[in-house]
Amino acid sequence: MSVRIAPSLLAADFTRLGEELRAIEAAGADWLHLDIMDGHFVPNISYGPALVKALRPLSAMPFDVHLMIEPADPYLEAFADAGADVISVHVEAGPHIHRSLQAIRKLGKKAGVVLCPATPASSIEYLMDLVDLVLVMTVNPGFGGQSFIQNQLPKISAIRRMIEASGRDIALEVDGGVTASTAPLCLEAGADVLVAGTAVFGAKDYAAAIAALRGGR
Ligand SMILES: O=C(CO)[C@H](O)[C@H](O)COP(=O)(O)O
């Protein structure tokens, strides 16, 4: 299974975002992960579609937009227009997740569903035909630099089994506290996309940090 590394912009130097984006791409990053926070669904505020749009011309990497916002539906079009390739919504962020996922697909984008650490794998059982990506949060969303919640590993494995059973091409992404030490556990459990903020942007050598996360895969 190929591994894709998606550095999270949240940990980049905000005074040099264009340079940071070019640096991670040159260092071998596969995707750019963009964390959108609303100060309501999560206790933090990050940035919005205007930033996604400003960065879009600077990179050919797929833009992986993680919406930590409630409600999400009124903003899907703005992120699609801004240049997102994948748009992910939280299963906990609204009563009609099927509608949100269908709306993302209708905008011509890949649809992702995200689970907070306390949310069981079974919550997405009836969504497998509507998603192109499942994102398992291994921290409670809202902040970078938190510790990896180890008990999410069986959930990652359970979702890998659900994906295999679906027969569909669905990416399995992990986000939160992913480092060179925790990355192999995530890959062993069945993840194939790793989001890392601190472990990449906090490193002196981005290429070495990304290679360490990939672990030779
Ligand atoms: O979604 C997020 C926070 O809600 C971040 O993507 C995530 O926490 C990455 O940061 P780090 O790698 O430093 O843990």
UniProtKB/TrEMBL annotation:
GO terms for cellular component: cytoplasm. Its cofactor is Co(2+); Mn(2+); Fe(2+); Zn(2+). The active site is at D35, D175. Its EC number is 5.1.3.1. GO terms for molecular function: D-ribulose-phosphate 3-epimerase activity; metal ion binding. Keywords: Carbohydrate metabolism, Cobalt, Isomerase, Manganese, Metal-binding, Zinc. The keyword Manganese applies. It catalyses: D-ribulose 5-phosphate = D-xylulose 5-phosphate. Pathway: Carbohydrate degradation. GO terms for biological process: pentose catabolic process; pentose-phosphate shunt. Transmembrane segments: none annotated. PROSITE patterns: RIBUL_P_3_EPIMER_1, RIBUL_P_3_EPIMER_2. Pfam families: Ribul_P_3_epim (PF00834). Binds 1 divalent metal cation per subunit. InterPro entries: Aldolase_TIM, Ribul_P_3_epim, Ribul_P_3_epim-like, RibuloseP-bd_barrel. A divalent metal cation binds at H33, D35, H66, D175. Substrate binds at S8, H66, G142, F143, G144, G145, D175, G176, G177, G197, T198. HAMAP family: RPE. NCBIfam families: PRK05581.1-4 (NF004076), rpe (TIGR01163). Catalyzes the reversible epimerization of D-ribulose 5-phosphate to D-xylulose 5-phosphate. Belongs to the ribulose-phosphate 3-epimerase family. This is Ribulose-phosphate 3-epimerase. The gene is rpe.
